[in-house]
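Convert to structure. Protein one:
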Amino acid sequence: MITEEQVMDALREVYDPELGINIVDLGLVYGVDISDGQVNVTMTLTTPGCPLHNAIAGGAEAAVRRLPGVESATVQVVWEPPWTPERLSEAARQRLGWQ
């Protein structure tokens, strides 16, 4: 059985190439829904016009698909609520020099 923790660990392997920080620590992942081998991830990006939209969302989907027991995975990018810097993890804040 796939757990949310496993999915989040897989998503930590997906980095925003401009910032060099994973999408979990950036606070881009809003939710994970798991049902009978199907994983649905709801996430956002730092800006709606992000030129790496497809690469980041595709990387997230690929990371989840690699998990044992995952039969299908989808990533839905949403814009509400909008991302704000308050969603950054402490590790991301330190890396960016935002204390």
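Protein two, convert as well:
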Amino acid sequence: MDREQLAALLPPVRRIARAAGEAIRAVSLEPEDVCDKADGSPLTRADLASHETILAGLRQLQPALPVLSEEGDPAGAEAGRWDAFWCVDPLDGTKEFIRGLGDYTVNIALVADAQPVLGVIHVPAADVLYWAARGLGAFRSTGGGPPERIAPNPCRTPVKAVASRSHLSPETGEYLRRLGVSETVQRGSSVKICAVADGSADVYPRLGPTCLWDTAAGTAIAREAGCRVVDLQGNDLSYDPSTGLKRPGFVVYPKSMALPPP
């Protein structure tokens, strides 16, 4: 897709993300609204409400384009390679949502030739929207206000890290100590990738498995802002679902840095 096509897609995808956020916030959780999926991760009525909202919106926008959603039929995506598809996490940070914390997001990405070329992340609790598309820059808007272009901290050595609230492993802590990081903030969902993209943090390592939908939108935003998003060997993350839906880990950092592998 060229820049004009991507630019035309951004406004409707932002609207879809906002509508999904409204669907999430409209759910008042009761104990019976939470169950465990086969992998042990939680699923709520809000996850499903967001999924249905996004699916309807994307099917209207691009009827022929496949949708890979965490709450859809992700196993079907591994059967064959898709040249282009939507990659969606309807509610990233379900554990935070259940606990009443604001660190949950709606993630929508467009993947082409195994790389995210457009990404939208909505943080419903804070009414913050992040978006980017290849060649068009990365932006943030708060409360429906005007867009603000974002960029990472142009530092050569990381000082402040952001790490997972639910998955901060001893290996991650040791890696941050080797990097000389003096402050680590734990958060949930894809807001961690956005924190590096907008300069709120200098590095985000995740030394454990994640799925494509966890990182696709954030990768599009971070890369367009001026960051690298690499696997544990230092290679750009691949988003070809035929090679599997999980990746063993990744690191997000500004292009101004040269970080050693974990």
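The chain has a mean pLDDT of 92. The chain has two domains: 3-149, 160-254.
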